[in-house]
Amino acid sequence: MKQAHKTAPGVFIPENIGKPALRALHGEGYQTLHDISRVSAAELLELHGVGPKAIRLLEAALAEQGLSFAEEEEEE
């Protein structure tokens, strides 16, 4: 049975997002979905190798763990 709202800090980033995206995320120190949940999708899209497909896959993986991307901060 799946627990939708339990956060799991040890759940690693799924490898199906692609090697370039994985390299970019690991290069920035993101190792787990919990790490990813601390940044916005827009911030991740700025990384070379992370594209819309990786964001969609990460969003689905985060949702499975009851997590989501951080909210984007508005510029003033």
Describe this entry's structure for a reader.
The chain is an all-alpha fold. It has a domain at 18-64: DNA polymerase, domain 1 (Orthogonal Bundle). 41% of the residues lie in helices and 0% in strands. It has four helices and no strands. The protein is globular. The model is unreliable at 1-7 (pLDDT under 50).
Mean pLDDT: 87
Radius of gyration: 12 Å
Classify the beta-strand content into a percent band. under 5%
The rounded distance between the terminal residues' Cα atoms is: 45 Å
- The number of distinct helices, counting runs of at least 4 residues, comes to 4
> What string, H for helix and E for strand, traces the elements in order?
HHHH
Helical/strand content category? mainly alpha
Largest sheet descriptor: none
- Name the CATH architecture of the domain at 18-64: Orthogonal Bundle
Q: What is the overall silhouette?
A: globular
CATH topology of the domain at 18-64: DNA polymerase, domain 1
Number of strands: 0
Give unreliable regions as ranges: 1-7
In helices, the fraction of residues equals 40-55%
CATH class division of the domain at 18-64: Mainly Alpha
GO molecular function, one term: DNA binding
Protein name: DNA-binding protein
Keywords: DNA-binding
Fill in the keyword field for this structure.
41% helix, mainly alpha, DNA polymerase, domain 1, 76 residues, 4 helices
